[in-house]
Records
---
Amino acid sequence: MSWKVQSNATDIDTLLLEESLFFNGNGYIGIRGNLEEGLPNDAKTIRGSYINGFHDIVDIPYGEKLYAFPENQQKLLNIMDAQGIEIWIGEDNQREKLSLHSGEVLDYTRILHLDKGMTERILHWKSTKGYELKVNFKRLVSFHTRELFHQFITLTPVSMNIPIQIISSVNGEVRNFADKDDPRVSSDDENRLTITNLSWTHEGSLVEVQTKASKLRAAALSTVTVSSNSVSYRYEMNKLSVQTIMDMILSEEITLDKRTFIADSTRYENLQESLFSIKNRTALFSFSELMNLQQDYLTTFWGKTDVTIDGDDKIQEAIRFNLYHLLQSAGQDGKTSIAAKGLSGEGYEGHYFWDTEIYLLPMFTMTNPDLARKLLQYRYSILDSARERAIEMGHKKGALYPWRTITGTECSSYYPAGTAQYHISADIAYSYVQYYLATNDKSFLKEFGTEVLLETARLWIEVGHFYNGEFRIDTVTGPDEYTAIVNNNYYTNVMAKYNLHWACKIARLVQNEDPMHWKALKSKLSLEEFELEEFQSAADAMYLPTDRTLNINPQDDTFLQKEIWDFEGTPAEHYPLLLHYHPLTIYRYQVCKQADTVLAHFLVEDEQPEDIMKDSYNYYETITTHDSSLSSCVFSMMGARVGYVDKAYDYFLETARLDLDNIQGNTKDGLHMANMGGTWMAIVAGFAGLRLKEDGLYFRPQLPKQWKGYTFHIQYQDQLLQVSNHSDGFKVKLLSGGQVNLHIWDKRYIISAENPLVITNR
Amino acid sequence: MSWKVQSNATDIDTLLLEESLFFNGNGYIGIRGNLEEGLPNDAKTIRGSYINGFHDIVDIPYGEKLYAFPENQQKLLNIMDAQGIEIWIGEDNQREKLSLHSGEVLDYTRILHLDKGMTERILHWKSTKGYELKVNFKRLVSFHTRELFHQFITLTPVSMNIPIQIISSVNGEVRNFADKDDPRVSSDDENRLTITNLSWTHEGSLVEVQTKASKLRAAALSTVTVSSNSVSYRYEMNKLSVQTIMDMILSEEITLDKRTFIADSTRYENLQESLFSIKNRTALFSFSELMNLQQDYLTTFWGKTDVTIDGDDKIQEAIRFNLYHLLQSAGQDGKTSIAAKGLSGEGYEGHYFWDTEIYLLPMFTMTNPDLARKLLQYRYSILDSARERAIEMGHKKGALYPWRTITGTECSSYYPAGTAQYHISADIAYSYVQYYLATNDKSFLKEFGTEVLLETARLWIEVGHFYNGEFRIDTVTGPDEYTAIVNNNYYTNVMAKYNLHWACKIARLVQNEDPMHWKALKSKLSLEEFELEEFQSAADAMYLPTDRTLNINPQDDTFLQKEIWDFEGTPAEHYPLLLHYHPLTIYRYQVCKQADTVLAHFLVEDEQPEDIMKDSYNYYETITTHDSSLSSCVFSMMGARVGYVDKAYDYFLETARLDLDNIQGNTKDGLHMANMGGTWMAIVAGFAGLRLKEDGLYFRPQLPKQWKGYTFHIQYQDQLLQVSNHSDGFKVKLLSGGQVNLHIWDKRYIISAENPLVITNR
């Protein structure tokens, strides 16, 4: 099965799309797949390089600003552009720029090497004057040296003695991409970077910038070396960029090694010194050595994470592609997370949403718990902001996580589909619990998780109230953004219940296992004993709306009383609805942008009997538009859960190749990270039916008839498992570790290295 | 009883307040009560002159703009400032400016003459050099010549031979007032006027301006004449203003007559010519003749409108003050209406809200139906915009009136307390019906009202739906802005029912009385016969939420399930709540900004039995903050209705002097027009209990024990009635016209000129 994603496209539209698809990243740095040589002047492109979390602070404008509306937001900035390497062919006065859009492209292939962590472009080109050459561009953003963006070019002459000039640049004059016509893309392209230093020394080309409002600093140090002896180097600088100009005659194969080291002031105090030292350390390694280190990293990753599908190469390509980009986007420093578009683009301003916890963390939690822990630490790092926000929102205590943020403060300006989504606090709590169930990592729980669980539990006591003996939560918005500001959203209530219940459970655990720590924590939080009791009674009394006639959980208290959206009267071009109808219009009808109650049934399945989950699935399926990329994967998983394997497969198809096939038409703005995580879940939690519960792992394995089988890995409490499902049976093999409790179709098994599980498929 | 409102204040804060209280207007022009001579440089002032409806178009900014959010809004502009008349005292090099804040103020009184339609300032002043004089400033904005702002100054020397220089100016460099700290005041003070002409000719000083975006034009022509023979005139111009400089020796009383004529391009094509001709026509009249014309107009007005209160001079002052300012602010050209602040200030950007129909029209409808008709015509003039907005908001037909507007397009950027207040369309329909009931003016109904009623009725069919045999309206906001986006707001539903019912009734009436007209109208509206039946069935099946346990109408479907706001835990300085809590927090609780269900019970009282109205009143009273100035008057009226006369009186006190005593602290931004209308209603519909129904007038007269009595006038179907209630009895006297059907405490009476009604009070 292939480890390559390939393309031969040279048309502008596809190249724009491929800027996202072929991006290189390592969780710290992301470089879009722009072309070294650039594009024709009028071509639409989003030329971008990003540092995870590197942002400016931007005022949020309001026509009518009300109390506690956020005054400003963070915005991920496009930083210095070091991608540029122009290759000019021909005599001095007649030079032509090597380009996909001039001269003659004799052959062109672009490859993403999923196993090597590298991208490649292979070009055979002939100038209008007849000079012919082959050029190979390789790129990686190193997992070994997080600051390194590495470009390596091989030039091979086909015609003889080609006069050639290469211009390598680092450009400090960059802006973010703006599109006034699309509400999902920023409309602001103001220049927010000030160039504070631009120089060339023997250490390389250096560009330093500072953001206008947040005063963050970033620096890029770039070196370039050509393997030819006869090359002459020249340096040019203007106010905005530094260029290295190299002249030579190309008469044999030569290589060009460009290394750009990028760092920012949230990680390093003295940027120049740090970059010089990193550069010198890395200088000990050749490109191929660095590529080997990169490959080693990927080999380890795939060893724990690979998923194989037998019998469908397109899906196989997609699933690996998705897992790879998730890795490339995940912040690994405990201070950053995974933005909605990862590090592949600027869509949603580089903000972190609930997506990380609900759609992305499961994969990391179950395959790379060390990385998952870093993502969870990020949420702990912004707990103080969440506490402050709770106070600002009128609560006496607790933590209200922001709907979208980088540094922890709320960045959402449209609160009905933003701040009102209180469920994000429960989602974060949920992800801590899931991590604990997957790892049994009590020390992490003690150090970080307990506090998060207790503070979020407090929020629910603040926001909810008892009414007729039931605990109710009014005036919130659930995950489905086509309904807003409702009472008793099923999803919110059931997740709050989980939050409250586990806050108690974990508190008691810590209390028993480490009374000293518990005492200190109680004192830090000014937590009273009665609060835990309050948590438990609220959890026990949590009101979960149920409609006996339809035998479903209504999305909220009045959802079912509304009219059903006129789907027949809605032309296809009116989707997504949010771009064609006022929110009030949409809110007035039974219509869902995405899974809401169905997602709740996935996350907390033990709250409802099978028939209610199934009838709910049937009901919501007819009124869900899947206008959000977070939807199809949930309908796939829950389709499998309630017995609709064919349906699950159909939804899976929509989710698996969403970016590769640009199904939503906006992949150019960045990859849909949550959907990528959803693909993994659709296989592992969907077709294999995996659930994490206190008494072990639960599977309900099924196999779509279109496939011969699938195999994946999971890490469970120090055990590495290989799970596969083929026509001959469902197998779980312990690759390392002791023994594991399993429940297959609710029947209990214990496996060990010597005794793998094999169950003949039904 | 006095016709004067007086003040001796010279402190800056009170002067700022008096800019609103002493403003002069005539429905077309409004001039704030700024001082001719100005204030010290650092003094806070809102120096303003306005033309009703004269606006620029301003972009509305959004952090996240969604479909059909208005892109821009109209904004009432502050126009050329012609108030300036500086008086400089003393020799050339030692001149001192006459001012309330320098020299010595020996005596100062300011008077608003409610009977004369004029304001006056009487100043006795001594300069630091010892020159002593008396100055009398008179001002009127003419009801006779709508374009005229007239200033008339009398200077009387006390010391001998005072060297004096008077500078009269017209200033084109004006901006709107901005306050970034108050969401109720604009934060935008960008200059939106371009001066297109600035000149002095024998016709006078002329300043012409054009707005930047809307391209409206306005012009001011100003003449100034001094009665002294020895005066020397000089003219100075710069790019921004024209000044007339007059030097003289003051040795006897002289007068200065300054006339500024103001016109705009929505009324006149050629502004200069029009102003010259109006000026020359008016030149035939002296100031005292023009003042007499003004007084005649006011005499007629008071003859139909005056309300007297025996036994409370402060209330008497307030009620006349309020009625006077309502007159000054009411557009009388059929193209304009009454802004939230009238023509007294810039608060709420000069927009027209539902206030006009529900709080202001009743007074005009019942006393000045000709003027009421003009206000109703304004709504007809923007019916096309309302139709377009309905389409934009996803409806197939009907008319959705904008929540706030000048020209007819929606200007509200925060839709949960804006566009979502669909009830405004029913409110407008209601005001047409009330006008019809008061006047029996079928021709107006035919020409304008029927179309408005039918198009608004269509909206309810579009927005509502049948559910379990009931007609329900989801996802709207009622008048109470502390609850938003709910299902089945009682107010909205009952008003929609009235709208639907009367649309049918009036349609049938027109159909019977003028089949030709009906046919033409049906064709114009593409109205199908079945639609009328649909209106009637929706009205008949309208769902009106009722809670049997509490015996009240819940404000909406889930209102009563929410927790009650923690009033005890809310410090006094946290009111109004909207300035101290996020809307989500407020929406989460049972707490009302203003009367909602209680207002519905006032407007449509026959839908509920007495006990439900009373129990509802009791319930809502405990949870209403009256943070809106639209609230107290309703609680006064309904207090009287359900038998709480003392309570009614207490609420009345809060409403009557709201501006005079600056109770809400923001009268500087303009007068609270709706509250002023509410004062009238609290007497007429409150204490006297007047209701307009199909079979005549209904009274339930009561007398607060604090008063000896009250008297008011109403115009009912060509009859002028004087209604009074004193300890000796309730009297209705027919001042003109034939006979009238009355219901007093539900008992029927017929009165005529010969047979007034006298009922001894219970």
---
Amino acid sequence: MRSKCYFDTFEDKGEIMKGDFISQADIEHLQEIVGEERVSQGTSQRELHSHDESFHLPRLPEVVIWPHSTEEVSKIIKWVHKKEVPITPWGAGTSLEGNPIPASGGMVMDLQEMNRILEIREEDLQVDVQAGVVYKELNKTLGNYGLFFPPDPGAAATIGGMVANNASGVRTVKYGATKDFVLKLVVVLPAGEVITIGSHSAKSSSGYDLCRLFTGSEGTLGVITEVTLRLVGLPERFMAVRTTFNTTHDATATVFQVMSSGLSPAAMEFLDEKVIEAINHYKSMELEEKPTLFMEFHGFSEAGLQEEMGFVEDICQGNRCSSFASGIGLDERNTLWEARYDAFEAVKRTATGLSPLIIDASVPISRYTALVEFAKEATEKLRAYIFGHAGNGNIHVVIMGDPQDQKEWSQIEEANEVIVLKALEFEGTCTGEHGVGIGKRRFMPLEHGNSLAVMLKIKEALDPKGTMNPGKVFP
Amino acid sequence: MRSKCYFDTFEDKGEIMKGDFISQADIEHLQEIVGEERVSQGTSQRELHSHDESFHLPRLPEVVIWPHSTEEVSKIIKWVHKKEVPITPWGAGTSLEGNPIPASGGMVMDLQEMNRILEIREEDLQVDVQAGVVYKELNKTLGNYGLFFPPDPGAAATIGGMVANNASGVRTVKYGATKDFVLKLVVVLPAGEVITIGSHSAKSSSGYDLCRLFTGSEGTLGVITEVTLRLVGLPERFMAVRTTFNTTHDATATVFQVMSSGLSPAAMEFLDEKVIEAINHYKSMELEEKPTLFMEFHGFSEAGLQEEMGFVEDICQGNRCSSFASGIGLDERNTLWEARYDAFEAVKRTATGLSPLIIDASVPISRYTALVEFAKEATEKLRAYIFGHAGNGNIHVVIMGDPQDQKEWSQIEEANEVIVLKALEFEGTCTGEHGVGIGKRRFMPLEHGNSLAVMLKIKEALDPKGTMNPGKVFP
């Protein structure tokens, strides 16, 4: 039912009537602001901006626009605000919960051409970027300065998208999520006013923490156009571990023993035996097909890392690991981790033609074992692959299926439902890192209770006309 | 002009008319809620709750109340909300910017009797506490579990006060400020409704980050009654350094070389020669009276720390340090750091009978040297002592003076003004860790520009009657 193939029938169903909000005169005015070539009502651009990487129902915007500056963003918004045109900011479209789908049509504002690194302040360990800078490109440049921005979302996301979504990933367990790195933002508010929030100071107790409020607000409070990020020095040395266990329980018990040992892993990833099987197939590898942990440690001294490695091995042996491979150095780390980075691709290749539903939930680490075991059981009869950022209690279950096959897909959605509900029962959250978007809206009342009304009051106070990314976050 | 000796003349000046808001019938109702002994209109209790540890003008509340539970807090607030009684939440009164002074009179709600540690979840590295638990007491208990809550505000603060203020301190440079540890809060809103925000998950991208909004909001949005904190394992090993330099410039240059070297100091403190002189006098020590750095490093392996120490020494020598003392182990660390912990007390003892004005500002670390040098010059003719959390760019200047001596005190306030303005010119913040309270309100427009209006919209949306800690944060 929810599939990209609905593209073709959209127009017929009257779901994307061109001109709902935007007239020809508007288009002409927008062209005056940004130039003709940066406003499009063409079908292909509208289709490209109708969906993210999830299975969620696409929706065509009326118009796509590519601003090049905060000033242009402000002018555009001021113009369309009079007519209450819905505006959905767009990063790279790599979200997984429908976050940038223009659910009410209107305008998609694609920030990918605002992709300049504005200033690298090496001495302050800070960088100023425009919102459209791509995460991986940024880190490539920062590497020349011995610096990096740690959250690693995996996808080819933009910094603006990562901030809007509070993205995180493999390295969050040591360094934090995107929100932990945002020092300053330039935001265009829903009526077009430009504000600057935060400062270049590494710490502050000056008033309400608006940076944290806008980070993770998924474009529902305004358009983020510029970002100042705190950076971290590239680690001097790397140590990596790949280890397998006979049971999920032994693997996940290892996770929280390492986490509470005083060690500070830079990555702590769990992959179940089915993911390993998929990787072996995809990459012609011969990894032991058992519950597996990938760990990474960053340190200053080789002797220090050697000592840590011995300690980690003791913990793994204590949990009866069936294999333990480790190495110090970036090359060794890359070899040991090679399999991990292709996990999602390997899983997708197990069933070409099918779509993945990716569950994302997070629980206190003491409940991680129970959640993984519950998820295993709940997806027993499905093509399900379990992995996740175990050190943060973050689980992902990728379930492959055909959204057209109503019976199968409803079983998949049912599995999603029960796993997320179990995470909430375990005092966790319905989304560890993918955001609420469209997919997690229905869980918001259960997770947040009456504090959801506080979020809504803030939304209404800052976006009274509800034009910013409507249909997201709130049920 | 601003001094605690105004106590005596307050009543005469009509500034604290008993009964402005609260009638005898109200008192009786409040006594019904919490019991007679936990409601006071006595002068001594009202005086105790009329000022914090700053020089800011005290103001007597009409009534002080000590709730024991979230439910009581809710009942109290519901009762007094009808009459729009101002409510100022109270932690331990250790603030430094007048944050808990009941500036509009009304009720002070003292949370110190809500001081139970509710649950220590060792495996999850989390603790649930009532707001009145004292920071140091909490860490004493957590130590038995090998855990700790790192921000070290120095003062005998409560957890609720630390959260309301987003307190930080010596260890923030490695571990973060209070806001980086708050996972979940129970808050009583301005009309008495109880909400729970956040979850027990270590990470989340689920909706607006209300935890971060309430953290640092200084009681202006509600009363924080319970807090869930993320914890950190006690470090396996400690390494400490105390080193002196001939010039402030050499000392502060060392700071940012260490900070950007890939090392991760757990503390990085600067003290100027006058602070060292005060310490020598107070503690009969013979430290070299020169610009001094105190550093601390936490690690897992002794060999690793040895290597780091060598590297730190190289940096210090490269900046022509005139002395360098270091040691590994908790005892060595405590010996080397003994002087640092008494710095404030030592400074106060240089001028008994006088009051301290404590400047708190923070800048990007590349501007730290310039700010320290500017502060030195600006306070040349005053009894000023400069120190601070240099690794975060956070400066403190303690200036001793007599608030009754109008001429001197206005010079002191002038110095505060120009140093804070310089910090803002350097793209820093008017308060690194003490909060806005009363003292920093006037800098808010300059620091935040039109984003201050966004903060105000949030305040009005959540506290439309303006009863929560009025007169704070906003100018």
